[in-house]
């Protein structure tokens, strides 16, 4: 088999439905396939989880197929109940518009959006906002309540006695309808999207008699299930600075190193196998390999000059167990509130964040004590460490 | 309390939510209340079950309140899953239009539809067909899946392992939305409509902060739960001939006599109490009282001349255990197929009906045998009895 097709069917892939053989036979036929992935414009930036799907789309595009990035601007206003134990907050149109400007720029790292033959961006509001009640009901008549309730996340909610709002049932159905409108051959998504993708597969078969292949990608997680996440504080955002990105990757667990190479870099499979073996045998120090992973990732997003600087910064800051060489310095009056100065100088994002960090014991005077008083006052020159990687020097 | 209000709150009433007291206090305030009942235009005619609701509307109209008859022309196209164990067949628009011409005429027996101050007829398609997906989702977000699944009929289906189509969940919600659009004070329905009416009560509270009273009417049934129905063959349709109507009422069970007077006639309460007592004590023969009930009903729909004739016909046909005095007579050739002659002369409605009746042993030669051969051939003069009340004389 063609090595590009081989990689496409395997690298980072969790599951292919109906089967890899089916997709492979379609790829070997003449003619372009239509492939899409949907992104919810619900966050201010894409994160490295999105990049996993974008990389797979890029593989299809390189083979000459037609690639579509679907922005779920309409469905985002419902909120995908996936993996949420409570109903999601609904976004406004202007929030969504702002987010998706950022996304296109970030996705350009992976996809060619040139006018002729490039990847297309489509918005599901273009068809969904036109759906009238009769069509909605017709669509609903194709699925049973039971099919929906079997969805793992709804099962969980039911068990926990948490209510499912009726409109949440619509998310999978409307996302499925996107497949129908786009008449796609292939959809790619995270492995938490399988249910929604299969609803679309079902609808495409029923409504336009087309067999869609659903590909789910692996999660960036270690064998114990530990994964990158917002609560873990190591969710790499594509808008992170080189330093932040480097530091976050370094905080991933060792078990995430190999998945990290597979899902987030262009390092070839044979090299990943070598890395995996040298990790297992203990020949190489995991920390050194993780530095290589962090650098691969930062080079991709920020180029090698910034990546080198980020590496140096990381080593200076953390490896020597000391404060970084360069720290931002601020002149303040004696008696200034620490919280206010940190906020005004953008070291923290909000007073809420500050209070949380203080509670967790994550704010301290370098060479001194942890700060436990929210109303801590600056009365002499001091350097403050905030969280894991932020520092500020105040001179009075 | 005003005796009209007393009757309004009690006669034929099964339940009032939130309470009879609440409704009573509203009735005693100045100003008109807005009352509505919905009818699904799914059958070719109204039946006497509808008349129970129409009678209650009439009481409100007589007290000067604003009465609205809502034709569920849009929701009829979804199908109310109430009391259905399977998803209902969807009607076409033209079927619906045809049906509701008939309804208005029939409802005029109860309601004054004069242009000024008369009852209004509205169609829920006028607002529902304009609902776009966003509004639909907003509506759906106000109800949980759990609330829907608790509905008795959905519980039954789930227990029986019969699928509930997603669109069936929409029926109660959209019917509820009718209440919101009409901004009604009171809704009247059959007792199987309580769930749907309460959804509307909920939505009216949430969306326009108005407290709707829901009134359910008793079923025309006896104490054992036996009721009038299509399968029982005694469902009185408002388009029945005087003879058919009379005969059908006479086939109701004795236990339905008192409910029949209460729900389907203008006989005063004190008289119904007297009837009820004389039935219980055995002073009067139930059959004689049932004849009075049948006559009351037939007089209302067909006038007293026709009612007298129907009574005579009934007594001649059935009471004497004999064939009626006047029977339609047809000249046929020897060797004619009985089924074809019955069909051509409109004694039966279809060959299917004929076969069913033959199977049930309900076709016989008067003074002779039951007919068991579908292909029975007429080879001499004979009179045939078909079902309980139909006769035909064939001469060769």
Note the main sheet of chain A: 6 strands, mixed
* N- to C-terminal distance of chain A: 69 Å
Number of discrete helical segments of chain A: 16
Quaternary organisation of the protein chains:
homodimer
Order of helices and strands of chain A: HEHEHEHEHHHHHEHEHHHHEEHHEEEE
How would you sum up the global shape of chain A? globular
- Mean pLDDT, all residues of chain A: 88
Share of helical residues of chain A: 40-55%
The low-confidence runs of chain A, each spanning 5 or more residues with pLDDT under 50, are 83-87
Order of strands across the main sheet of chain A: 1-6-5-2-3-4
Most extensive chain-chain interface:
A-B, 35 and 35 residues
Number of strands of chain A: 12
- Computed CA radius of gyration of chain A, to the nearest angstrom: 24 Å
Strand content of chain A: 5-15%
Structural class of chain A, by secondary structure, is alpha/beta
Short description:
The first copy, chain A, has 396 residues and is an alpha/beta fold. Chain A has helices at 3-10, 20-28, 48-62, 93-107, 125-128, 133-140, 145-149, 152-159, 170-182, 194-208, 242-250, 257-264, 269-281, 286-319, 338-344, 351-359; strands spanning 13-17, 34-39, 66-71, 120-123, 186-190, 213-217, 329-331, 336-337, 363-365, 377-378, 382-386, 390-395.
């Amino acid at each position: 088999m063609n090595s590009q097709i081989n990689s496409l069917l395997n690298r980072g892939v969790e599951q292919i439905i109906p089967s890899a053989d089916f997709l492979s036979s379609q790829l070997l036929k003449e003619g372009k396939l239509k492939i899409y992935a949907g992104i919810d414009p619900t966050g201010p930036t894409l994160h490295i989880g999105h990049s996993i799907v974008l990389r797979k789309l890029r593989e299809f595009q390189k083979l000459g197929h037609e690639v579509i990035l679907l922005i779920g601007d309409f469905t985002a206003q419902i909120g995908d109940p996936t993996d949420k134990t409570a109903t999601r907050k609904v976004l406004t149109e202007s929030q969504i518009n702002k987010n998706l400007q950022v996304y296109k720029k970030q996705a350009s790292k992976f996809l060619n959006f040139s006018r002729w033959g490039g990847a297309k961006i489509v918005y599901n509001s273009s068809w969904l906002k036109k759906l009238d009640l009769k069509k909605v009901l017709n669509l609903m008549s194709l699925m049973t309540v039971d099919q929906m309730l079997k969805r793992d996340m709804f099962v969980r909610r039911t068990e926990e006695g948490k209510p499912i709002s009726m409109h949440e049932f619509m998310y999978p159905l409307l996302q499925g309808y996107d497949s129908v409108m786009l008449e796609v051959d292939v959809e790619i998504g995270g492995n938490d999207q399988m249910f929604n993708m299969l609803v679309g597969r079902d609808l495409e078969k029923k409504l336009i008699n087309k067999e869609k292949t659903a590909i789910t990608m692996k999660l960036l997680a270690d064998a114990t299930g530990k994964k990158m996440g917002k609560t873990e504080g190591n969710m790499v955002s594509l808008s992170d600075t080189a330093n932040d990105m480097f530091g976050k990757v370094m905080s991933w667990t060792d078990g995430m190193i190999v998945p990290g190479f597979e899902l987030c870099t262009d390092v070839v499979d044979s090299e990943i196998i070598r890395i995996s073996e040298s990790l297992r045998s203990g020949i190489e120090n995991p920390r050194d390999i993780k530095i290589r992973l962090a650098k691969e990732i930062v080079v991709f997003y920020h180029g090698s000059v910034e990546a080198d600087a980020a590496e140096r910064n990381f080593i200076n800051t953390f490896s020597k167990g000391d404060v970084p060489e360069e720290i931002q310095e601020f002149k303040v009056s004696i008696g200034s509130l620490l919280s206010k100065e940190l906020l005004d100088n953008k070291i923290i994002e909000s007073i809420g964040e500050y209070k949380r960090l203080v509670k967790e014991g994550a704010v301290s005077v370098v060479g001194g004590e942890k700060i436990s008083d929210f109303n801590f006052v600056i009365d002499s020159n001091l350097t403050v460490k905030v969280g894991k990687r932020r520092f500020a020097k105040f001179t009075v």
